[in-house]
Design a protein that fits this description.
- There is one protein chain.
- The chain has 15 helices and no strands.
- It has 288 residues and is mainly alpha-helical.
- It has one domain: Orthogonal Bundle (MetI-like fold), CATH 1.10.3720.10.
- α6 packs across α9 and α14 packs antiparallel against α15.
Length: 288
Amino acid sequence: MSDPRRSLARALPVAPAVVLLLLFLAGPIAYCAYIAFTDLQLTGQAHSSFVGFANFRTAFGDEAFLNAVWLTLVFTVVSSLVGQNTLGLALAALMQRASKPVRTLTGGVVITAWVLPEVVAGFLLYAFFRKEGTLNAILDALHLPSQNWLYTLPILAVSFANVWRGTAFSMLVYSAALNEIPKEITEAAEVDGAGGPSRLWHITLPMIRRSIGTNLMLNTLQTLSVFGLIWVMTRGGPGNKSQTLPLFMYEQAFQNSMIGYGTAVALLLLLVGSVFSVMYMRLLRTEV
């Protein structure tokens, strides 16, 4: 039977951290959960009242909300699951075989995009994609057709911007993972006649599976919450063609003053992130 005093002594060092988590994390989440079931507004209301699931029923019956859900999924899949993950792995693999000057230059360029503040990155990519921007200038110089990318393909433009800004994290994760693969294994595969694609599929990817799952989880959660980059580039427009859930939530809560409804949308976004997290955690627990 365990000694209560020993158990208490073991718990005391972590007690301050637990208190801080309850105060600054669990507390605000619980308060937001309560607000999501009220009709709280910023203006024109003296007191709020409990409305049950009315905000959630309103959300699922709102075409703008469903459009925001769809665009959030497109933005996440294109820029995180496919873009950052694939490009980060490709850069990490190429940098392993590159010379030191090439590795230094490539790593510096990619990491510079990552450390830039989100708003600064947004303005840079806005200048790149706008009608009179850098991309169209290059296309005109090559005598190729140009267009207003932020108007015709806004969700793809902001997805590319997120790839450009966030690939460095995936590159660093995969560089560390690839360095942990014993060289003897890859050399033996080469001797046996395995080509590059075969080694990648049968050796590299299985051996870095846990790094892939961790990277996907962190990238997905970060991408779901992207706000500043899209706001600076398109503000969710034109219309609502690039309005993801964070922008829709901001519009409802702070522009339309419906705090209760906006908080309900925030809880649904938290639920989406939780679903992705559970999927990745199951992937990490699965043995090869």
